[in-house]
Amino acid sequence: MLIREEIEAREQNDLAPWAMHAVDSKGRLRKEPQDDLRPVFQRDRDRVVHCKSFRRLKDKTQVFITPDGDHYRTRMTHTLEVSQNARTIAKALRLNEDLTEAIALGHDLGHTPFGHAGERVLNSLCPCGFDHAKQSVRIVDVLEKDGQGLNLTLEVRDGFLNHQTAGKPHTLEGRIIQFSDKIAYLHHDMDDAIRGGILTNDDIPDEIADVLGRTLEERLDTFVHDIITTSKGKPIVEMSPEIHDAFLKFRTFMFENVYTNPKAKGEEGKAMYVVEELYHHYIKDENLAKLPGYLLRRLELGDPKERVVCDYISSMTDRFAIARFNDIYVPKCFAAQ
């Protein structure tokens, strides 16, 4: 028996009946031979970790744009924290940890430079619209590996597409990511806000702190334990009504005091200007030829130029976007004679 088949057999014995089993996957966009060592979701996780889009997350904004300090979160560290929380929940609920981790590690591949600020700009400029969840799927389908894509399973792609609040994932593992994504960013964005002198733990209203806890560690522990306690032994992934109500209040508090705070968002206008000007530059027919080869092929295949320009700009790290802007718009000094 192949090692993969041994692992798949263990899944049948160890996972809950309502878990997504690797042998029950609906497959990939393109059929390919099975691996002898790894079930399909483990292969997907590995493909995400080894792709270029994943590595670029380390230089993309989470909340604070160009923060003065080494310990603020990036989109990469956010992704790793989502993965850690999600794996803890999946293991406790006997759901598929490989599928959960694969979705967690790839759910934000489609994020733009400068976080949601960059996303809003592209969404406002592109006639096709722009959504980072849909872009994550586009990346793994047709953009990664020089246009070949990663050919991931339908379950992982579904998890990417439906990780936001309005999404309706078709697996319980995808549902875990919906919660873990929000738990992670509320936790670490509060930590970064404290580090940045924007808030203290004492600023959290008592109606929230009394339920969730008064420290970062207590709140994270409350969220994870509550999901596990509420969902254990059931074909659901949910919070209890009391914790979910406090969770929503905490999220509103963070939007009012951090995500729209001028101190946290002081550089956001400049970042949005950079993204906007890059779009206006590359959308001109005379500049389309400057796009990478794999994107020129998307144009040849009939993709709208607006979508392809968004593909290019959204793939940029913060640093690369600023460098491109400077190359295009900032006069260069003459070389010394």
Description:
Helix 5 (97-106) packs across helix 8 (154-161), helix 8 (154-161) crosses helix 9 (172-195) and helix 10 packs across helix 12 (241-259). The chain has 16 helices and no strands. The protein is 60% helix and 0% strand. 43% of the residues are buried. It is an all-alpha fold and 337 residues long.
The rounded Rg comes to: 21 Å
Give the low-pLDDT segments: none
Q: Specify the biggest β-sheet.
A: none
Shape: flat
Q: Work out the helicity level.
A: 55-70%
Strand fraction: under 5%
Write the layout of secondary structure elements.
Elements: H1 3-14, H2 40-49, H3 52-56, H4 75-92, H5 97-106, H6 115-125, H7 132-147, H8 154-161, H9 172-195, H10 206-212, H11 216-231, H12 241-259, H13 268-282, H14 293-300, H15 305-315, H16 318-329
Helix pairs in contact: 2-5, 4-5, 4-9, 4-11, 5-8, 5-9, 6-13, 7-8, 8-9, 9-11, 9-12, 10-12, 13-16, 14-15
Question: Quick gist of this model?
Answer:
The protein contains 16 helices and no strands.
